[in-house]
Amino acid sequence: MPEPHARLTLPPAVPEPAKHPFPVLGTLMPMVAAVVLWVVTSSPFALVFAALGPLVALAGVLDGRRGAKRARRTGAKEREEALAALRADIAREHEAERLRAWTETPSARTVVAGEAGPGWHGADSPVVVLGSGEMPSGLRLDGAPQGEEDRALLAEAAGLAAAPVAAPLAGGIGFVGPAALARAAARAALVQCLHAVRPDRIAVDAAGEGWAWAHRPGRGRPVGIVVLDRTASGDRSAFDDTACVLAVATETAALPPGIATIVRIPDPGTAELVRPRAHRFSPALLGAAEAEAFAARLDARAERAGVAGRAGAVPDLVAFDELPRPGLERRRDRLAATLGIGADGPVAVDLVADGPHAIVAGTTGSGKSEFLVAWIAALASAHPSERLTFLLVDFKGGAAFEPVRALPHVAGIVTDLDDAEALRALESIRAEIRARERILRTAGVAELSRLPDAVALARLVIVIDEYQALMDRFPELGAIVADIAQRGRSLGMHLVLAAQRPLGVVRDAISANCPIRVSLRVLDRGDSIAVIGDPRAAEIEAGTPGRGYLSSGAAGVRQAQFALVDEASIAAIAAADPAGAPVRRPWLDPLPGELRRGELGRLATEPAGGGVAFGLADEPDRQARTIAEWHPHTDGPMLVCGRGGSGRSTALAAIAAGFEASGGGAVHRVAGAGSRVWDLLAAARGGRLTGLLVIDDLDRLGHDWDPEARQAAIDTIAGVLRTARSSGLTVAASASRLGGPAHGLVEGFGASLLLAHAGRAELSQAGGDPALWRPDAVPGSGQWRGRAVQLVHEPVAAPPAGPAVPPFAVQAGRLHLIAAASPRAALEHWQRAFPGQPARLIGAMPAPTGAGVSEPGRPAALIGDADAWNANWSLLAAERDEAVVLVDGGPAELRALVRERSLPPLLDPGRGQLWRAMPGAPLERVRWPA
């Protein structure tokens, strides 16, 4: 569609062709050349060329004039074509502008024919189309006119023929002429007003014969219109100063003073605008029968849309305090509440008698959340918290139910801000179903309404706003909702499910048990029919929040304006409820962020089972918290996995403390110096340990050891894991990830405690439930056997000290053979420790057999590196069986002197430790004397 103020351009004028002057030089130059040629050649024929110059020049002048005429004709033709195209563009722009004008301000004839769109744009004073005629156009032509044709085109573009001639209703409009014509014009104007303004926002006082169809009482502060027929006065007491006048008179003098627009209609085809400016046009006229038929259709449509302006119509706004307020009901067989005002008075519904469940529909802006809040407040004002509780679920940001949070009836509000807590709370509903079944079974009754007053069990109303968002997030909860829908009546559990479009979202098994239906404004007739069995909710006008229809059993479909509740009313309801015990919550509080061992018995809902207690497990589907226990002999060894900072060390400390408290035996921590760890694993390998072997950071165990030593440690742990269930030694270990050589240990663990992981995928790969993953998990929180768990906080002890390593002393009369990675450093150690005992270095070149052995002044020690001893193999072979062997180095130095291939005890680097082999004795750990 063209822009409202389009711009076109006149074609430029045809330019005048350039004049071609006579070529004087072009004429003279051939003549001069011919004379020069004649002088040189003396040929008379040369003079013939002198005549060519004037002939060629004359031909050029004639050809230029001919070309100029041709260009002038072509330019004129092109401009005529451009003008024709411009006329077509003007006609097209005018047609679009005319269509737009008639669309924005439809005529009375279009309105009556039902071709003017929905109308009811608002409550502002409308603009009335008086007829059709030529009006100024918004089209603009750029460019300078070149003649009368261009000036005529400019005039044609500036005017819009057959356009609506309109005037604002504000200030009044007077129609002067023969009575029949003036009344027909006024009828046309009034029909346009009724089409433009909502029926409940317009008030028309049309006294006199033939105007009964037009009367509208209006409500609130509507647009007021007074129709004065052939009189200069009228009763305007029912209207304020904003009321407008449609006056009909046969003479201008009979019109009321101050009329802003006056139209004179001398005959059916002619009208003259007298004021505010003179203008002639064709008037818009409408017959009485047409106007009456239009008014009847308007009333029917307004009734369907709930905006009727007649007496007994539904009000525009209902405050909560305007509703009837009954006293507190303590009966178990009622949950009645008044929700709004209809055409016949207050509209109420009973969740017990009419229910047990309800569906609420409403698009954005319809007031759906406000309706739910008002319903909750109405129920709370009529029923004490000992008889009624609410579980509120808001899946559109969490703010919808904040106004009623302070009510003592509210057991909790579940939002979409925390998926884990939302899922936990909603799964607890299953446990609530079973708990209510047990209470009814114990009391010997079939339904809650028959419970004795002494049994404290309130009805639970579960209100879910944006049910579709809940199902999109947690589709598995549909089975829980369906279970409540089927068994809720007897258990005293009621559902109020609200969605923008319940069609296709609420399952048939659920909707079949929801006889209470409320539909606020919806966008589609199918949605309205699906909810209330009536299409009228799709005809509710936008901008009418709280307007809707209620369908509840035998009462049929009732239209109502539902009440809005304010904070003061909610506070008064909360203050009026008698103080009593806290309401029964359908779920327990979340696990604490920090847990002490002494709190386990108090926070757990069930006693311990005799195992190793290390934390508190959450079981929302049982409404229970149980003590997390590990049974080593049946569960097998325990593996604790989690990212850095997840509390792995604290978890092992909690398990170790629980193991000791359960009488399981001694706890052996595989921690501290490498020598201690090695000795501890050696004792485990030799079957000399019982109790619990605690290994922190199993994936890093021995990472700085010799590969052979590390593999030996892994093999030892693997052996302990294999026999853990049958032997007296079990294992509890932790790791962030098991990779490399330790990967094969995973299968040896029968139980796993999963702490926080970096993401859901990592948790799932570790064998956990990704639904329990939380990005903000605190240290010590995790999952145990598919349940969320919080571990007992136990202090982590400092690493134990390494074993005492004795210094070695010189064995009198024995030669000391020392293999050292740094022979000179070993020599300096020896000389400082034993200044009276000579020692010398051996080189890589072999010494003669017996050198240094039989000669006088024999040294007490021979020192060399692995290469030196390999070169002096004969010396080594002669002395090794009787000498004291010391190794200050690594495996290479050890193999150079010691024939035994079993792994030696681990040395702690940087502590001056050595291996010593005495004749006939195994390797032992010693150190250089200080």
TrEMBL record:
InterPro entries per UniProt: AAA+_ATPase, FtsK/SpoIIIE/SftA, FtsK_dom, P-loop_NTPase
Transmembrane regions: 45-62
Domain FtsK, residue spans: 344-529
CDD domains (alphabetical): RecA-like_superfamily, TrwB_TraG_TraD_VirD4
Keywords tagged on the record: ATP-binding, Membrane, Nucleotide-binding, Transmembrane, Transmembrane helix
Binding, ATP: G362, T363, T364, G365, S366, G367, K368, S369
Molecular function (Gene Ontology), one example: DNA binding
Pfam family name, one: FtsK_SpoIIIE
Record carries keyword Transmembrane: yes
PANTHER family: SPORULATION PROTEIN RELATED (PTHR22683), TYPE VII SECRETION SYSTEM PROTEIN ESSC (PTHR22683:SF1)
This protein's name: FtsK domain-containing protein
UniProt organism field: Agromyces archimandritae
Lineage: Bacteria, Bacillati, Actinomycetota, Actinomycetes, Micrococcales
